């Protein structure tokens, strides 16, 4: 804890990350109080003010049915961050574990696990999502499930290749010689050494996961209007570039801020997780 | 009677592209319970390879290794793991750079359930102190240790499991003499107290002289000579052994004299 | 008299860690004249390797390190040199043999290209084939039995001693003015150790190379060094000629060290305290051994 | 047989098994995706009888294993059936659309390697400096909008405001190039028409860049974070102490040991683009397989779905094998591992 | 050489037996000819490949022109007409349903064909604009593999090649990328010099791409699917707006089988609460150009039975409240499912508009995005069909029958056009009468009755009458899409390339 605080305080970039993320989370949590038009998160249309460029009181302009983009972005953070967090919270542990196990244990285990991963990876995500739709209710939860299903194998491959290299290191031998269990070697010895790559990928994936929501909602899975989500806002707005640029640019910047914050934080996290106490 | 550990016709061949390297060539010897067997030999003579095979890090290409009369399987069981420990030659890579010294030291305690849980941290501290390091070092990362300090951590870790046999691959060559003395003493004490057995790989014949019961001399993957320390130093049979002893750097005049004597023998024999 | 090859004056070093600052060097001074072999002996963790790193300018880049004092190389204050000038010295005018050779060689390249890289420091135009020939010659000089195989191997395919010899060959390859040898003998068997020490001695004499020889193997020091500094916990405690030191060790710590050396004649491991208040006694300088006046 | 070839053969063999697995799975999935293929194919106005007749012709009323049997029988003749969407043989469609996409993603893949990796190296080498931050912002921008949004933005900037690049298509209308391989860059060279080659190459730049942005970002970030780790290793200190040029240390000594994650991700990205490039293809009017794939999925064009997915899977497996081999090549310790598994 | 470049959504279907979409229609109208074509500047149909035609009881007899040659050089004969008809029936795809009531076609002599109908069916002549006449000889020479005498009916050949008499020939065709067509110099009516020499018809361009291409002078006519905002900015940049009126409307359909919309009062409440004016504002491009004009009822303005343009639908919240009060369901007891088609982004805005409008009545609702494929699947069962669906429908032949019958006849329930599942005897009767009547007055009366009934029971909200707006460069003049006096009453027919003029700007 002390170490974490020390690392955060010493590196101004990490601190920036903390501040950005705090702002984003704060904005999402207290959107009801901050948003100038809280009702614009829902079923509101205002054709007197639609498709307006940024101007008072619409800081970020209005969308095609006249809702305040700034307010919607604040609310969108809620669902987008939730989506990102949930997907990563499931996909990363699953993918990482499989990759570690396959890479470390080798033999038949590796063979079977990696071929299963291959199958998942080689089916295009859209097909996977569509088939989910055939089988499941089109709710947000199932949408997250679908994204998770297409996400974990990336971590598996990443960690698998790292593990193959790490297991040749002396410290793995040392642990084996001591008689440490496979679980220990995999999770306590090798995993910490894969953390930099995993964390880096995770901080980037946050952006991707937020964006994937747009393709999910294109398929009718996931977030449905009028609930705002950043991915759909960016994606839908692109049709109206360059004229109604604010429709794309502000949600895009909102994602950038979140991803940027997490990335800075990720770098710090790497240092904090650096040494296992 | 077979010893605690016996190697029978053990060979190890590495393939390097098209080429084959016979790192260990048809070696047989026993390690008796409670003894300290030193393995000396030129660099690249296969000492570390033997150590790695004893530990089951890789299997011998030929031959068998038996533990208390049972041939050791390729996949070692936990009891074998506990019974045989290793101090690796390369102290940097044998410590996980992402785990603190304390975490690395605690591992054998946890794995083999040594001591009760709440006192393990203290135990780790004591282990560090035993090898001459302050207990606070348990919070450090290996990167912040000097070469010798790392080596001492590795030794402490091998001792932590309270095993029957410890294979020490150049355990003290990175240590200064004071610490070396201390570690050697510790090793000797533990041997007495717990009846440990050591396979001690080193170049330092002065050390060998002072702690080993028997010495095995290797050259080019072959076992050249195996005898009691006394015998080897008093009357080395093999020319290579004599050369080894003659080359030892020494600090006292008495030692210079001994060296001279052996060198003369060698010249006479040649 | 020309300036010493290396002069260190009042060098201090501390690290900032999350647990608070750690002082490692408490103002040490030492010098090496041209062609001189100077040993730095001392306890493990006493600050030998970090001193070497500072001389090479490697620690200066570490953000958590705080360095004070002066380091002069051939009369030039390293602090005043530009980064480029400092850089130009490395690998050409000074080189180093690392303590842990196996991890100091790059695991993903074979030895040959790494050697090529070293030789290019002195002769940027050297061809791969020429570099290989030269490397093979240098490797035979350090008694590597099959130099060709070693060149085609990765560091993890060589034994510890072989890696160390590779490092030694690399360090000597460009005939530097200052060679820092951080425990060069540790992983070598005694015959090879003797051989390489002899080789280093020849080299040094021939090219008037100065050597900073870091070791705790007092036997080796005795056979190799002209002058010895004994360091204890970041302080120099004794400074003497090699002969003088072994004949008449004056500092309690030096005496302890000497008596702790196991003897080839047997006699067991001596009983010596490894921590003692006495070891903190002030510096003892033998006659004729003093630090030159600062002329920066 | 050299070990690499043997390994390759073995991996290719197992890939075939995976491919069979994928084919069964996708065969099932294609039938689970909502929508009645016959109805969608026949258009909104078809009568129930028409739909029934088509269902029968497609064997849709039979049990799934029997349908799969038909599929295998046809496949053995190299026949993937007729696309209900384009009304052409699926094989013809794939043959036409695959080269266009491959051409695009090969260039995109090269961009990931040639831009992403060096950016990562620069960021790691100048860690904490303005260059590092500039690279960070650039790479994070890449993940803050989907590739097709970048496609639109790039098109607007570099084709609209600054008309430096062509807007759409694979080559200017004025060139008539006979299709030999389907790869326009190659066909133009075969035709010996350098101007056309230049024009075709020029057309690839923007879409490939838009596609590769996210990969560039990932490759750069992963390279950076791993190189930062590697920079702490003793062998880097050794290289420094020998005064190897910093640039060489970065490019060789620290770079190669740090390459594994970036290479893995580039490989995955490369393969994934086959399925994900559709929106970029749409923006740049690129007649590629990805777009075809999405269209057929949305229209539930069974034969075409199965055919496209199989091709994509096969490409994917191939790329993965290459990546695995490359990684073993990059890290000799994997290659020469002595460890019993 | 002049080149005309335009785009549509994919795919371009070249086979006359399968063509349905707007893109397909454009291909058919240029590569093939039909016996009749819509009259220019007014309602009705005029002979084209036919010299003349007459009704004979239920049957119709056509006399062919003798000066017509196919692009292959083969002369047009009655056999080709019979073949074309039999082929479309045999394939049973595309628009073949239009000929359900036609029992057969018969060659009377080389230039005379008789179509035999099973019942009086006045929209038949209109249907013929959807029967492209195919070069039988050429097709027979190019039959692909298949069972039976006709093998594959030339499907393989016709999916990649043209076999018509049209003013343009296929140069190359890739159904997902582009069809290139060139002027047919031997066209039987001749082609004006000003008409484009080459036409590049691209499929699937993104809005932003089209916007850029037109601005850069690399594209001539956009598809009708551009969002109004994009059209607006193109217009602001100086692009001309081409307009195609009539033939279709935007319908908001209510599932009449599920509560609460099985109660007519509830439906009427929604229809009164819907904000027609805002909806139109959404599709407005400029002050005088919009993608829609006010709806007046169930039948688009200009068709038989339509109300005059002045009788525009209007929001009436008071009336809505009264209707709701009469409804047997309480607004707080239900949650309406408003669906929209994922492929048509503007529908999302209408969904939001409805949601906001209905909220004012205290009705809760939930928006669902449905991809087209899923939507077509769901509407096949009344219980899966959403409460509210949004549909753009048009008369594929220009005849009101092809618009209204598939939407509202009880036998047609459960398709994408009829998610109302309307079962109403009066409506059925009116629709059947509309088909059977042959006189204009008779049809007018039938459809007026239908329209009244549709207003009374409100199975749909008649949101607006659709107009297609195309942005175009100034290099091309399209009288049929810019001058009402030269317009055709059939969707897509304005894209007859031979009637366009390249200005050479
Ligand atoms: N990066 C660092 N952060 C904190 N402390 C460090 C760091 N590097 C070295 N130290 C500490 O500095 C002291 C001196 O280390 P150094 O490597 O110079 O020892 P040494 O004299 O070479 O010992 P040995 O003979 O064991 O190699 C040690 O106590 C070590 O723990
Ligand atoms: N993984 C490997 N692949 C190929 N050859 C190897 C491998 N490991 C060791 N060797 C070779 O085997 C021989 C014996 O090596 P080993 O490490 O056992 O020597 P050693 O006796 O421990 O030497 P040192 O005292 O220098 O550590 C050497 O020639 C070495 O090059
Ligand atoms: Mg060894
Ligand atoms: Mg050291």
Question: What's this, in brief?
Answer:
The complex is a heteropentamer of chains A (277), B (270), C (296), D (341) and E (505). With 277 residues, chain A is mainly alpha-helical.
How does this structure look, described?
The complex is a heteropentamer of chains A (277), B (270), C (296), D (341) and E (505). Chain B has 270 residues and is of the alpha/beta class. Chain B has one domain (5-266): Rossmann fold, CATH 3.40.50.300. Helix content of chain B is 39%, strand content 24%. In chain B, a hairpin with a 2-residue loop joins strand 4 and strand 5 (70-71). In chain B, helix 3 runs parallel beside helix 5 (147-160), helix 4 packs across helix 5 and helix 9 runs antiparallel to helix 10 (253-269). Chain B is globular and about 60 Å long. Chain C contains 11 helices and 11 strands. The longest helix of chain C has 18 residues, at 190-207. Chain D has 2 domains: 1-85 and 299-341, no CATH class; 99-296, MetI-like (MetI-like fold), CATH 1.10.3720.10. In chain E, helix 8 packs antiparallel against helix 10 and helix 13 runs antiparallel to helix 14 (425-436). Chain E has helices spanning 22-31, 78-91, 124-127, 136-141, 155-158, 207-215, 228-236, 264-273, 276-282, 317-326, 346-359, 372-378, 400-408, 425-436, 440-457, 479-482; strands at 3-8, 36-38, 45-47, 50-56, 59-64, 102-109, 112-117, 168-174, 178-183, 198-203, 240-254, 292-294, 335-341, 364-370, 388-394, 460-472, 476-477, 501-502. Chain E is an alpha+beta fold and 505 residues long. The model of chain E has no long low-confidence stretch (mean pLDDT 91). Helix content of chain E is 29%, strand content 23%. The chains are: A mainly alpha (277), B alpha/beta (270), C alpha/beta (296), D mainly alpha (341), E alpha+beta (505). One adenosine-5'-triphosphate (ATP) sits between chains C (15, 17, 22, 24, 44-50, 99) and B (144-149). One magnesium ion is lined by residues 47-48, 89, 169 of chain B. Chain D: Pfam families: BPD_transp_1 (PF00528), BPD_transp_1_N (PF19300). Chain D: Belongs to the binding-protein-dependent transport system permease family. Chain D: Its main location: membrane.
Largest sheet of chain B: 6 strands, mixed
List the chains of the largest interface with their residue counts. A-D, 58 and 70 residues
Give me the CATH architecture of chain B, please: 3-Layer(aba) Sandwich
Shape descriptor of chain B: globular
Transmembrane segments (chain A): 12-31, 79-107, 119-136, 142-160, 206-224, 244-265
Main location (chain A): membrane
Membrane topology (chain A): Multi-pass membrane protein
Keywords (chain A): Cell membrane, Membrane, Peptide transport, Protein transport, Transmembrane, Transmembrane helix, Transport
